């Protein structure tokens, strides 16, 4: 409250601005809920309660034994996440998503089998309607194929326990587990790279066909035997086949409709959403084409460099490209103060002190975060804007300030100016506030940003000069500790160097000097066609 009144007093005096910069909340309660141990325990208790409802209701045989076995499987699943996927295990929102999808998957199976057991006519084909690939499909698209495989294993085991004594005799626990495992693996395999929603439909169709083949093998459809073919109901066989394949398609359609809700609820961005965000008609990018065309072209080149490098080391290339589009949007506030948008004849920094120039350059990161929050950009994009310079030094203006300080000291000796009256040049005043790049994609964009800027100063483009320039920039970043918080290893850095070199060579290649075209001499009056000459020799009409 005291700070509020102090701020208002400064605003009235013109010493502060009434506008407030948008900030992302770092509430300790939110962080505790996301990473704390107690919320993890409550998630386990909630899922255990859900398993109790599934296994201890509906007059199931051996209900308590099934429930205790499922609890042991739950502890095994948590241990597997803790050892194999520590980042997922460390985020409670991800645990809520995973175990919530597990509970929904098991609830659908329990409902279908219970209705089939009760003899409801409309669900006579209940076992054939089971969406075996629902949980693997959702989690593979949202959290990656490793979590999709994890989901396939555990929903198959839980489902095998659930169908024991509840499903018809033809659907034994072993048959259910095999069908669930194979269907889940097929779904994860087809959805390794989902860049279009139509890929989900293909996955659903593939799962439906595989499930149909397995159901045929295990006698859930048919039987189709030569000696029994005459007694087989052909119409029922077609109906059962359509039910199985249609269930796979309906599962993929359900997943496609559920994904946007889950993405917004849990702050997840899939490849489909990244492609949608890559539209260059975004208002900020359209502003950049008009107000800062140099920055816009720079961002496109950085995006090309980052996308190729990200694909080379196996991280998300679409995310790298989209984040690179927006990484310099903060320059829209003062575009004329950045070299790509200025000319040598009109450089506004010539009239500013190095400290003031550095403040303007450094501010474009905070301005970019402000614009990103205002336009509701994705969290990963805003993080890239804040992190892509890390804590690097604005070297040019820092050296310029040191030179002015030396000049002031030299002149001060002549004019008897005290050393204390000369302003001190602090390196911290010329460094970005960070944080350092936290992801591989952001680190790649940070390197691509510097490489693209430095490539403009090359007088003669050769493969050796480009490679040496890239290596010098990368070594300087490593010495400065700018890559300490991302997971890039030396092998990946070597791959990035090769990718940057290849992309820059294709962009900065030299052209063959074409010979100049010599201008044609002007036609002389006597240079006329034969027809013109013959007509010129004819006498005038009046003389005829």
Architecture overview:
This protein has 544 residues and is mostly helical. The protein folds into two domains: 36-268, no CATH class; 273-394 and 431-507, Hypothetical protein af1432 (Orthogonal Bundle), CATH 1.10.3210. 64% of the residues lie in helices and 0% in strands. It has 22 helices and no strands. The radius of gyration is 34 Å and the shape is elongated. The termini are far apart.
* N→C terminal distance: 111 Å
Write down the overall geometry. Answer: elongated
So what's the oligomer here?
single chain
| Residue windows where pLDDT falls under 50 for at least 5 positions | 527-544
The structural class is: mainly alpha
Main β sheet profile? none
What letter string, H or E per element, gives the SSE order? HHHHHHHHHHHHHHHHHHHHHH
- Mean pLDDT comes to 84
Strand content: under 5%
Count of alpha and pi helical runs: 22
Domains (count): 2
Q: Helix proportion of residues, in percent?
A: 55-70%
Task: Count the E strands.
Answer: 0
Radius of gyration: 34 Å
